[in-house]
Specification:
The protein contains 14 helices and four strands. By secondary structure, it is of the alpha+beta class. Helix 3 (about 85-95) runs parallel beside helix 5 (about 120-145), helix 12 packs parallel to helix 14 (about 310-325) and helix 13 (about 290-305) packs antiparallel against helix 14.
Length: about 325
């Protein structure tokens, strides 16, 4: 694991100029305090980062005061993209503190700046893939230990999507296969009991498509790329049918508060599942640099759930990747 001092000192030796950047930055201290402004210099001997705050104050922070990820973001802003050695060291640091997409981006910058370094960079990528896969498994195990199935599922899905060729991905896919349907079915068990008569009669088609939507989304997580895309697209189409069926019963039983409540809850569950499928597709298209398709699906997710923070964050990452011409794959 890299320490903060050597990484910044190395960048200084490599000629990275710690000059004020055009845009605003922020740093985070270990105590959680966030300071807005911009880095102005780094003293490698004293191990002190000079920082001008948004209100014009000149501050000095020792490395012991700074959060590691904050140091990465500040350093990334002062290492030129055409400094191959600097980008390799920046990538290695990002990799070792768990910023895998950032590491992948810096490796790409380094390779573009000096193609002769590709063999060395590829070796670092191999290590990065192994570390990232191990980290995903560890995070999933920790989440399961806390009975947080959704969080565990998120880490396992990341592993399968981002690192499909790593040995750990097969393990992750098997666990997803085991838990995905059980967790999704548990979401609507109570609702099924409450609305049994409605499901048997007016919502029979909707329930069939709802179940198939979940099954297709699960299958997409462990299928090959082109198959995954077709499965997730199919899941979204199923969701659209479910929403139409819900609309029909809401109109038919407009004066029945019990039906209206059940319809609203099924709509919420359906939308959540459709958002998941859209974001899986967005992630897959971003990795393959199909940015327009990726943005189409994040925008579709936000149209369904405008306040969805995951979709908002994913759209921002895609827009950045598109503007810089790089993917968001992990190594």
């Amino acid at each position: 694991m890299w320490s903060i001092g050597p990484i910044l000192a190395s960048f200084a030796l490599l000629g990275a100029q710690a000059a004020p950047s055009a845009g605003s930055e922020h740093i985070k201290l270990k105590d959680g305090t966030v300071v807005q402004g911009r880095a102005t210099a780094y003293d490698a001997q004293k191990k002190v980062l000079s920082f001008r705050t948004a209100d014009g104050k000149d501050m000095a922070y020792t490395l012991d005061q700074l959060d590691q990820r904050s140091v990465y973001h500040v350093t990334a802003s002062i290492v030129p993209k055409d400094n191959a050695r600097g980008q390799i060291q920046l990538a290695n640091y990002a990799r070792d503190i768990g910023l895998y997409a950032h590491a992948a981006r810096s490796y790409q910058y380094a390779e573009k700046a000096d193609p002769s370094l590709k063999p060395e960079i590829d070796q670092e990528r191999v290590l990065g893939r192994r570390l990232a896969a191990d980290y995903c498994i560890q995070q999933a195990q920790a989440a399961f230990a806390k009975n947080d199935v959704k969080e565990a599922e998120r880490w396992l899905s990341l592993l399968v999507e981002k690192l499909p060729n790593e040995p750990q991905a097969e393990q992750a896919a098997a666990v997803l296969e085991q838990h995905y349907m059980a967790e999704r079915n548990a979401r609507d068990d109570e609702l099924e009991r409450e609305q049994a008569e409605l499901l048997e009669k007016d919502l029979k088609l909707g329930k069939e498509r709802y179940d198939r939507m979940i099954e297709r989304t699960k299958q997409g997580l462990t299928a090959r790329s082109s198959q995954s895309e077709a499965l997730w697209e199919g899941a979204i189409a199923d969701g659209e049918v479910v929403l139409k069926e819900i609309g029909k019963i809401e109109k038919k039983y407009a004066d029945d508060p019990r039906v209206q409540e059940g319809g609203a809850r099924y709509r919420q569950l359906t939308i959540a599942q459709m958002v998941d499928a859209h974001l899986h597709l967005a992630s897959r298209y971003t990795v393959s640099s199909s940015y327009n398709k990726a943005l189409k699906h994040t925008n579709a997710a936000l149209a369904l759930d405008p306040q969805n923070e995951q979709a908002r964050a994913q759209r921002a990452r895609i827009e950045q990747a598109s503007s810089e011409g790089i993917g968001l794959n992990w190594f």
